[in-house]
Amino acid sequence: MAQIPVQTIHRDPQLFYWILIPITVVMILTGVLRHYATVLMATEPKKQELPAIREQRSLLRGINLRTNANVISPASFQARKDYLVNAYERGDFLKDPDKKGQAAANPMTDPAAMEGMMGMMKGNMAMMIPQTLIMGWINAFFSGFVIIRLPFPLTIKFKSMLQAGVGTRDMDPQWMSSISWYVLCIFGLQSVFNYLLGSDNAASQMAQQMGQMGPGAGAQMFGPGVDPDKQFKAEAENLSVLAHEYTLEGVEDRLLETVRV
Amino acid sequence: MSSSLSHPPAHLPPAVALRISQQAPITLRNPPSVISSYSISSLWSAAETPELWTEYENLMLSCLRTGDEQSAHLCLERLTERFGAENEKLMALRGLFQEAIAKDDAELKQVLEEYENILTKDPSNMPVTKRRIALLKTLDKTTEAITALNEFVDSSPTDAEAWAELADLYVGQGMYPQAVFAMEEVLLITPNAWNIHARLGEVLFMAGSTGDSSADKYLGDALRRFCRSIELCDDYLRGYYGLKLTTSKLLSILPQASRQSKSDSGLALPDLKTVERLNETATAKLSEIVRKSVNGEPGWGGYEQAEVIAAKALLDSSAAKTIR
Amino acid sequence: MLTERQLQISPIVQESVMHNTKTLTTLHNLTASLFGVGAGILGLESYPGFLFYLIFSLITSALVYAFRVRPGFIEESQAQGNSGMGRYFRNSMELWTGGLFEGLSGFVLTWTLFYGLVRA
Lengths: 261, 324, 120
Prior knowledge:
The complex is a heterotrimer.
Chain A: H1 14-41, H2 50-67, H3 74-90, H4 111-142, E1 146-149, H5 159-162, E2 175-177, H6 178-188, H7 190-197, H8 205-222, H9 228-240, H10 251-258
Antiparallel strand pairs in A: 1-2
Helix pairs in contact in A: 1-4, 1-6, 1-7, 2-9, 3-9
Chain B: H1 2-5, H2 14-22, H3 24-27, H4 50-66, H5 69-83, H6 88-101, H7 105-121, H8 126-138, H9 142-155, H10 160-173, H11 176-189, H12 194-208, H13 215-232, H14 237-253, H15 272-294, H16 305-323
Helix pairs in contact in B: 2-4, 4-5, 5-6, 6-8, 7-8, 8-9, 9-10, 10-11, 11-12, 12-13, 12-14, 13-14, 14-15, 15-16
Chain C: H1 4-9, H2 14-42, H3 46-79, H4 85-88, H5 92-97, H6 100-118
């Protein structure tokens, strides 16, 4: 079988000016816009009543004690553990002690819970809407154009992905249609956004998707629909089984070993 | 200048604070673009950053320290213009300003009343609660301040600042066990803070110096705290200073201390030889730090002058004792 | 690997680790895009292009090593005689391979773009 000659396709340079560059510029600008939209739409942290703050921070105190228990002496740890475990089990820190034992309120009816859901919705919307819009825009205007060639060879499997909307059977899969350029932009513009907007920007979708899992854990802790009494009970259990190991034990010998005068 | 402005001014040496506040009129000449009326030029001026407002806040505090009330007032006004008078932090800052310009106790009491008014309306206003406690402390109402702080840490037990302040107040009252408890709470929140370890060591040392029956236990704990703070931060002057003091004291009481003083909880006292070696190490390290920092060797700056002088004095006094 | 007790004694502070990683990532992202521009203008295709990226990001890492890690390494070995790599990295692979994959997508993007523009 003869060597397949390298395919060359003569493209109008106008393709660059009217497709490639517009898509790239629009992608960058959308990223910037998304960043500022997220900043502007961020709701101020809602002001909480004193008992609610107390409830959350008391739980945090227990978690702090659990994670950092080793810095204090066994006696001090024991005293704190006894106090906190008792208080947790009695429900001393609860926002409204009367409600203890009842099931958590339905998050749909609780206005505070709705607020949190709205925040999440907004974040999702800020990501979804521009994506859909740009996809639609590219499909409507630029579908069917082959605009650029990847500088490295790919297997035939990628053809359907890269050449969506181009119905040629034997074109080299290196050639890309406008929609695949868009996809490449989504992944590659991360560094541009990092440079333009600082590293913790809201523009990059990758970060957004990560973020939905990451801080979600933190928000879930005090989020709607979680029964604080149950959290306290669980924390009490964690505390009471914790093995304590004092960091200061033998510190003077360690110090004498490491310090050279 | 900006770099020193972005740190809280309480940590600045007085000379730097003075220099900053002397430059305040120049810094304040141009209002930031955000609050000046809109013009075409604001398109090119630098964007607003959170740092800008931190700088304003710190500039205001520096100005108050050095008595430049006009500039401080200007800072406060600009902050108010940006964030609105209802901002919790600004309420506290305004109170701070009023405290600073108050001439006598009567005026201070007026400010206190104002704080209490704010707090009855909104008990969850943390910054103002803290200001009220600080003002109580200024007015020498220590017991009231302690009570207020206890309430505060009950509702917000993860506030390291409040626990540290509480420990300080307890130390001032000579209530060392309570102070130790409060310091331990700070440590639980910030487990790697070497300065807090050293501070706890200092409190324990003070508790051990009262001549109590359990003095040697306190001293043993203090010794370990200082060791830990040095372990976390090499060449930490305060840690070595405390270590030297504690070991000297322990050396004087260890021989006659009952060897059975090992309590059921906690660790036994370190033996005599370890204490001696620690003492020698601390002395050697202190003299090294003092020598190098006085000579201004590269990499040995950054020690506070007062601390170096104190360390030198301690070394001199102990040297005099040995000669005698 | 450090045991739990050793971690307690000499702790690794999460904030500092995050900050360091972030700085290195920014460096790698930015340089990767620039390498893409270079590779595109040179008109490199397939393997030479990837090789170009690999070599240059290794050079970046080597520069970081030479100017940032090495001085600490010398200081440390004089003081205590243990490995200086442990001062900044949990293992040495983190320095050499850490940035390679993060920068790759940025590299491919600018490479394709400039290759396309030059070979239009």
